[in-house]
Every structure is written in structure tokens, then in C-alpha cells.
Amino acid sequence: EVQLVESGGGLVKPGGSLRLSCAASGFTFSSFTMNWVRQAPGKGLEWVSSISTSNGYIDYADSVKGRFTISRDNAKSSLYLQMNSLRAEDTAVYYCARVVGPDFWNGYVDDWGQGTQVTVSS
Amino acid sequence: QSALTQPPSASGSPGQSVTISCTGSSSDVGGYNYVSWYQHHPGKAPKLMIYEVTKRPSGVPDRFSGSKSGNTASLTVSGLQAEDEADYYCSSYAGTKKVFGGGTKLTVL
User: Fold this and answer.
1) Shortest Cα distance, chain B CAs vs residue A16, angstroms
2) What is the pLDDT at residue B2?
3) Which residues, listed in sequence order, are joined to residue A23 by a DSSP beta bridge?
4) Any chain B CB within 8 A of the CB of A70?
5) Residue (of A105, A95, A111, A118) closest to A10 by Cα position
6) Which of A25, A82, A89, B88 is positioned for an S-S bond with A69, CB 3.0–4.6 A?
């Protein structure tokens, strides 16, 4: 059974930093592109960032580019999101998500974690 | 990246059918067959219901079906049941764009 467990969320002041982690199990982690997707209060889902199987390709939403950094450790079956210069509008539940597809650019999310809450407030 | 457009709400009585639309453009929904649909109960992980426009993962009831015409994809839920009440999101992961719809709250009356 695929399991994705996020951690690292919490309350942080504007301008602060936070590092999210996602522990994966139940599948060959190194074989899948991974994503972070978020949902702000009362809003829909928003794609945040993607990373390919061997870090060869990385992509970010314009709203987080230059502030967030995605990374992975295939030996530890773990996905990370380093979030710097946080803003109130980054407040959301952040989901770790596994992507299925023929390549980095095309596919779909087939499994999700339960999410971790990030709140940016003074 | 602009979100895909979904109606904010939809509803139907038990046993009826409901269709939820998802409108994008020729650079996402209309140009590729990587449209997927997710069911989301608040506080839980979203669940994949339809992928590649029309395909159903194992375990998803055949009451759920997907289609596409031009730049608009649709999710149809037939034989509505109480447990179908949830938020539904469409998504297009294709080319250089990865976008979701704004979500539709499905209410079973």
C-alpha cells in the first residue's frame, strides 16, 4: 500500500522559513516524479513544485519561484520542500503527491498524503 | 498559470446523475489527454477518480465516468449516493502546465 506522510508544518512569522518532509513507503520511490500541491483556506488545489526521479528536472509555480526549493533523497524515500521568505498567502495545507506519467511533463497525480498545515502569521 | 474553471457547486438527489464541467484552453484540457479528477473529503487525502480523461482506477465505482469535448472536460456521477458528497477537482498535467480547477462542491440532497 502506497503511503505518503508529510511533516514539518506549523506556525511561522512572515519572512520566516520552514522545511516540509514527506516520507514515502509501499512503492519504489526513486521511480516516480513527486509533487507538492497546496490548498489555501477556502480555495482550490494549487500545484507548487515538481521534481523528477533523479533530480534532473525541477519546476515551480510562479508564486513560489525563488523562495521555495524542492529536493529528494531516494536512499531515504523522502521528499522535501524548503520554504523561505514565507508570506501570509503561503498559508495552506501542503500535500505530498506521487505522479504517474510517461515523462516529467505529462501525467497525473495518483496518490496523495494527508497533508501538513502551514500557517504564516505574525 | 490560470486555474481551470469549474462550477462552485452541483447537486442531485440519490439515484440521479450529475455532471461537473471543467473548462480550460487548447494548451491544457483541449490539447492533451492528461485530464484527471479527484474526490476530496475535507481533512482527508484527495482520491483519484478518473485519469487520462476517461479511465477509472481499480476500486472506483463505474458510476463515475469522464469525457472531454474541445477545451471542456466533464465528470459524470450516475446513481448518486450519499457518500458521493464531497469536493471534486479536475486537473491537467501536460506540457509545461500543471493546473487544477477551483473545485466543485457536490451535494446529495
Assistant:
1) 26
2) 64
3) A5, A78
4) no
5) A118
6) A82
- First CA to last CA distance, chain B: 35
Pick B96's closest partner by Cβ from A44, A100, A105: A105
Tell me how close the Cα of A63 comes to any Cα of chain B, in angstroms: 9
The span from the CA of A115 to the CA of B21, in Å, is: 26
pLDDT band, residue B69 (cuts 50/70/90) = very high
Q: What is the residue-wise DSSP string for A14-55? A: TT--EEEEEEEESS-GGGSEEEEEEE-TTS-EEEEEEE-TTS
Smallest Cα distance from B61 to chain A, Å: 16
User: Tens of pLDDT along A57-97?
Assistant: 999 999 999 999 999 999 999 999 999 999 999 999 999 99
Stretch B1-12: mean pLDDT: 89
Taking the C-alpha atoms of residue B51 and residue B38, their distance in angstroms, rounded to an integer, is 9
Query: How many CB atoms are located within 10 Å of the residue A107 CB?
Result: 23
**B45, B95, B100 ranked by CB distance to A113: nearest:** B45
Q: What is the pLDDT of residue A55?
A: 72
